[in-house]
Design a protein that fits this description.
- The chain has helices at about 30, 100-110, 140-150, 195-200, 220-230, 250-270, 275-290; strands at about 5-15, 20-25, 40-45, 45-50, 55, 60, 65-70, 75-80, 85, 90-95, 115-120, 130-135, 155-165, 180-185, 210-215, 240-245.
- It is globular.
- By secondary structure, it is an alpha/beta fold.
- Strand 12, helix 3 and strand 13 (about 155-165) form a beta-alpha-beta unit.
C-alpha cells in the first residue's frame, strides 16, 4: 500500500508567499515517506460539495492490494516537498500562487481538515564520492533546496542557483557556510522567461566530482540535462526533474495523442534493464523528437 489519509494539525504563515502545513499521517508505514532531501508526496484535497461539506478524497484498492486515490473521482491533488518528517508527522511548505487548486486548499485549510497522501518518492541521490553539488530550482523547488542545504554532509560544498519572484523569498533558505547562493529575482516561475539554464551554463564548475540536482519547469530541466550530458557527465551525477510545465493544458492535449507510443519508449528501456533514470532520459528524448 502507498496511500494514507492524514489530518491537518496546524498551519503557519511563513511569508506572504509561503504557508506551512503540518499533517499527521494515519498510516505512515503504508505511505513510506522517503528520507531524502527532496522527499515529496502527492496531497489530494477534500472534495467540496454544494452543501459546503469537505469530503476526504475516495480511494480504491487495486488487484495487487495497493490503495490509491480513485482516478474516477473529482479529487484533485498536487505534489509537494516534505520539509520536515518526524514519525507520523510531516511538514509541507506551499508556495501560494494567484490561483490553482493547491493554493485554494493551502490558503483555506485548517486543523482537522482531511486529505489523502499518495506516491511518496524522492530523486536526490548524490554518490558518496561527490565533492561538490549544484542545486538548481525555481519557487517550486525552494522547499527541497532548503532541506537539502540543512542536511548537507560536513565538508560538502554547494552552489544553489534559485529563481524567485522577489528578493525576500531568499530569506527562506537557511544559512550554510559551505553554500553559495546565486539568485535570479523576478524571472521564470510562469511570469517571465526562466534564466536557470543560462545561469547553469554561465557557472564556472569547480574541480572534482560534481552532482547536479534540478527542480523547476520541464523545458528548463531538459536544457540543463542536455548541457551536462554534453559535458560527459554520467547519469549518476544528475537528478534533474521537471516539477511543472509551462502551458500544461496545451501540452497535455498534445501528449494525449502520442501517449501510448512515447510511454512504450520508457517501458522498453526498463524492460532492457536500463534503470529508471536512463528510461526517463530516453522518454524525454522521445518527447523532444515529436515536439513536446
Amino acid at each position: 500500500m502507498t496511500f494514507s489519509y492524514a489530518s491537518v494539525v496546524e498551519t503557519a504563515e511563513l511569508s506572504r508567499r509561503l504557508r506551512r502545513i503540518t499533517l499527521r499521517i494515519d498510516d505512515p508505514e503504508a505511505l513510506a515517506v522517503q528520507r531524502a532531501g527532496d522527499s515529496a508526496v502527492g496531497v489530494y484535497f477534500p472534495i467540496v460539495t454544494p452543501e459546503d461539506e469537505r469530503i476526504p478524497p475516495p480511494i480504491v484498492t487495486g488487484t495487487d492490494g495497493t490503495r490509491h486515490v480513485d482516478p474516477a473521482s473529482d479529487a484533485q491533488g498536487r505534489n509537494y516537498s516534505v520539509r520536515y518528517h518526524d514519525g507520523d508527522l510531516i511538514v509541507i511548505d506551499i508556495i501560494l500562487h494567484a490561483r490553482g487548486p493547491g493554493t485554494t486548499w493551502a490558503a483555506g485549510t485548517g486543523p482537522g481538515d482531511r486529505v489523502g497522501l499518495d506516491h511518496a518518492r524522492s530523486w536526490y541521490r548524490p554518490e558518496p564520492t561527490t565533492d561538490w553539488q549544484l542545486l538548481v530550482a525555481d519557487l517550486s523547488g525552494l522547499p527541497a533546496v532548503a532541506r537539502i542545504i540543512e542536511e548537507l554532509p560536513p565538508g560538502i560544498r554547494a552552489t544553489a542557483i534559485v529563481e524567485v519572484a522577489d528578493r525576500d523569498d531568499l530569506d527562506y533558505l537557511p544559512p550554510h557556510p559551505g553554500v553559495t547562493v546565486v539568485p535570479s529575482v523576478g524571472t521564470g516561475n510562469g511570469h517571465a522567461p526562466s534564466q536557470l539554464a543560462h545561469l547553469v551554463r554561465k557557472l564556472a564548475l569547480p574541480d572534482g566530482r560534481g552532482y547536479c540536482w534540478f527542480a523547476g519547469e520541464a523545458a528548463e530541466s531538459r536544457t540543463v540535462r542536455k548541457y551536462f550530458r554534453g559535458l560527459d557527465w554520467t547519469i549518476d551525477e544528475l537528478d534533474i526533474t521537471g516539477y511543472w510545465r509551462f502551458d500544461s493544458e496545451t501540452w497535455d492535449a498534445k501528449f494525449a495523442l502520442v501517449e501510448d507510443d512515447v510511454l512504450a519508449v520508457y517501458e522498453r528501456a526498463l524492460a532492457d534493464g536500463k534503470g529508471d533514470k536512463v528510461a526517463s532520459e530516453e522518454f524525454d528524448d522521445a518527447l523532444e523528437r515529436i515536439g513536446l
